[in-house]
Structure formats: structure tokens, C-alpha cells
Amino acid sequence: MNKITAAGYDPLIKREGNVFNKYGVPLVDSREMAELLSVDHSRLVEDIYNLNVSDDIYFANFTLDYVHEGRKFIWIFYMTDDGFFLLFERYKWAAKSAMALERLKSGQATINELRKEFGLKELDDEGANVILTIKGN
What we know:
Number of domains: 2
Shape: elongated
């Protein structure tokens, strides 16, 4: 984890179990996001910390905080809706790619069927054969 945190963040507003930024926009808790995506929270925190986006986007959409859980403090991120969807799309794309590779290896789909599902240009027969050789099928 090598991303720095913003030095001058405005304080979070915590009210009735909800968290808001200074503009009154409700923020999503990374623990809720991890539960939604069925991933380990510590992995999600690390993925947020290492997002490959500009600092402007990162700091506008993610705020690091610590919470007391049991006898220890844990890192959590609060995120805007844009931050939520940025992460959601990243995880959705990874899951979709893994399922597509399994379908390709098991013969349930051709490379061109998968490329069409992903909105990519279809390959000619020679290009499709090169991809199949690379993927080990």
C-alpha cells in the first residue's frame, strides 16, 4: 500500500449510524461494500488504497478512517457514489473475465462469442486460434 492519504480532509459528519461529507452527501462504508461483493474487507481496503486513478479522483471519492471494532482499530474507507461504482465495475469486470475464461477453456463459448459479449471486435479465424493457443486451450 503506497497511496498517501489527504492531509487536509474536512471532518466526516457521523449522524444516526450514517456518514456524510461536508456537503451532506451520504458516504458508503467499505465494510458494506466488501459484504456486497463477497470479498474480504482487508483485501478491499488494499485494493482501494492501490487504485490506479489520479490523486484528484482518489481524494474526491475515498476518505480513510479508523474504527474501533472489538479490541482493535481497523482501517475503513468511506466512499462517494462515484467511488462505489468505480470499485464495483472493477470487481464486476474481474469476475466476468474469470467466468469468460472458464467458459472458453471448457468449450462452452468461442473466443468470438466472448468478445461480442464484452463489446469487442470479433477476430478472424487466425486471430482466434492465436488467442486459444496463448490461453492453453
